[in-house]
Amino acid sequence: MDVRHVAKLAHLEITEDEVALYTPQMAEIVKYVEQLNELDTENVVPMLGGLTAEGEATVTVRDDVPKASLGQKAALSQAPSAVEGHFQVPKVL
To answer: Which of 3, 30, 68, 69 is the most exposed place for a label (fewest CB within 10 A)?
Structure first.
């Protein structure tokens, strides 16, 4: 498992100490998940995500009808913090 490559794909900077720490951890995770390859799936029916067994779309509870949008002013009227026409939220990263 190439931890540096995974970090690059995730746009993360990683130190050599972190590479040394995470490489064996990721190898153990992959080893654990690879156990799924040992399962006998011969008699398991494939699933169709989001579709019925026949492959049709699921039944909806209402028609998908376009409606007028709420509008920026109304949407921001109840916001705890709005700045220059946008919702202001705390930084996550």
So the answer is: 68
Q: Are 12 and 18 in contact (CB under 8 A)?
A: no
Phi, psi of 78 (to 5 degrees): -105, 5
CA atoms of 57 and 50, how far apart (whole Å): 7
Q: How confident is the model at residue 45 (pLDDT cuts 50, 70, 90)?
A: confident
- CA 83, CA 76: separation in Å to the nearest integer? 9
Sign of the C-alpha dihedral computed for residues 23, 25, 30 and 31 taken in this order: positive
Residue 51 predicted with pLDDT over 70: no
Instruction: Please indicate, yes or no, whether the overall pTM of this predicted structure exceeds 0.70.
Output: no
Count the neighbouring beta carbons within 10 Å of the beta carbon of residue 50.
7
Is a pLDDT exceeding 70 seen at residue 22? yes
